[in-house]
Amino acid sequence: MYLSMLAAAAAVFATPQADSSGAAFEAASIKPAAIAVAREGGNRSRIEHTPVSLSMWNVSVRDCVQWAYGVAPYQVPEEHVSTDSYDILAKAGAPVAVGQLRMMLRDLLAKRFKLTIHREARILPVYELVVAKGGPKLPPANASSGAAVRAAESLPRVRNDSFLFSDASMAEFAHMFGQLRGIELPVVDRTGIVGNHDIVLKNAPAAARDGDVSALLALVQEQLGLKLVAAKAPIEVVVIDHAERPSGN
pTM for the complete prediction? Predict the structure, then answer.
């Protein structure tokens, strides 16, 4: 069954690297990450965008590829990829949609990092995030603020011995949860729940520090009414074939 699923996925994912010609930033600065002024968490990456700018702090090439191609961390294998971190500030010549900003970042990576990639599908062990018996226990979805800035972080924040997943969609919650110590598998959203939520998971930081997977899964079910189920699935991955240190500004 998995072979047929993989063949079908490969047929869908076997597309050439997107041509980003004509989609370039007007100006871009790439510098080694200013670790001395890193935010809470020390090695936390942060990405913000507006219609005319993209700001990335403490990001690796993998982080950049994830955002540029709109994929999760587990979809960019760590094979032979540098862990150097950068601060990237880029501006567009006119307001554009976020999809165009992603294309511009692809162009920047190709030109400044000499990045080349290919896509393929792999059958991977995963956790599927589903609604548990009794239904979800999430706070109400946040109202859309219409703000020009939409921030995304690679890890939840720690507050009062709790994890805070701020303004997170279920897909974003799943992605961040999958990076916690001990989980070590992709978490794929299968809840069907729409909207963004401010999710608080109490007592989870201690469990994550200990790598206590059973405790983390129990907390998710008890507090959020969600459940993680072990499964396998064909997952598209973006493989970095080549990347160099960035050329000068």
Answer: 0.60
Separation of alpha carbons 66 and 181, rounded Å: 20
**153 pairs with which residues across the strands?**
46
Give the residue, 197 or 40, on which the prediction is more confident. 197
Closest CA to 163 of 117, 99, 224: 224
Tokens (6 digits) for 182: 């001990």
Supply the mean pLDDT for the chain: 85
Q: For the chain, what are the domain ranges?
A: 2-120+236-242, 122-233
116-138 per-position pLDDT tens digit: 999 999 998 999 999 999 999 99
Residue 128 to residue 229: CA distance in whole angstroms: 5
Mapped to the 3 state alphabet, what secondary structure does 57-91 carry?
Answer: EEECHHHHHHHHHCCCHHHCCCCCCCCCCEEEEEE
* DSSP per-residue codes, 197-243: EEEEEETHHHHHHTT-HHHHHHHHHHHHSEEEEEEEEEEEEEEEEE-
